[in-house]
Specification:
about 40% strand, alpha+beta
Length: about 200
């Protein structure tokens, strides 16, 4: 378990979120899975657009909450971001990956998807002696400030989708499903004007 907020956020808005994390005392950690390298910086210049495939992960490391551990896995550097001391010192972060499958590659129509992203931090972890170590209060404060900022960058927007019922009494009938999501203006424009779908 942990704390998280899901959203659809464009690259430029994520740069604003990353700068907010820096302003709150974090360092940005970039995990490049293609290069097998983990780097840290106090500058948003470390944040780059995703390539054809999303093979980069970002974390906001709060040094006040503890050190981070980077290990080698199959000769590649990876941050130990799971339920560990490192996990207690970082907030996982990202922005929406844009997937565009050309017409004919998966059938007859072009597929355009915006993949959901999130900020996330763990609740705590059990150390090697079995003692529970909760998430530090300082990390919780930073996470809460970032979550509030996400809601400003990606305001809550209501959507209405058509669904097919699987309930016995209405099986096979179409109905309207209403839901609210956090979406930046740029992503909403891609949905409304360019035919992208939120995934």
């Amino acid at each position: 378990m942990g704390k998280q907020i899901n959203y659809w956020m464009d690259y430029d808005s994520f740069l604003l979120l990353a700068q907010k994390a820096l302003d709150l005392g974090c360092r940005i950690v970039k995990e490049d899975l293609d290069a097998g390298k983990v780097t840290q910086s106090n500058d948003i210049g470390i944040v780059t657009p995703y390539g054809k495939y999303k093979r980069i992960g970002y974390y906001f490391h709060l040094p006040e909450a503890g050190e981070i551990k980077v290990g080698l896995y199959n000769g590649m550097e990876r941050i130990d971001s799971g339920f560990s001391a490192t996990g207690n010192a970082v907030i996982e972060a990202g922005y929406s990956f844009i997937w565009k499958e050309p017409e004919g590659a998966c059938g007859t129509r072009e597929i355009k998807e915006l993949r959901r992203a999130r900020i996330y931090c763990i609740t705590g972890y059990y150390d090697e002696n079995g003692a529970y170590i909760p998430r530090p209060d300082c990390l919780t404060r930073v996470y809460n400030a970032l979550a509030r900022y996400v809601k400003k960058l990606a305001p809550c927007t209501e959507f209405a989708d058509k669904r097919i019922s699987i309930k016995d009494e209405d099986y096979g009938k179409e109905y309207e499903y209403r839901h609210k999501e956090y979406v930046t203006g740029a992503c909403l424009d891609m949905v409304n004007n360019e035919g992208y779908v939120l995934c």
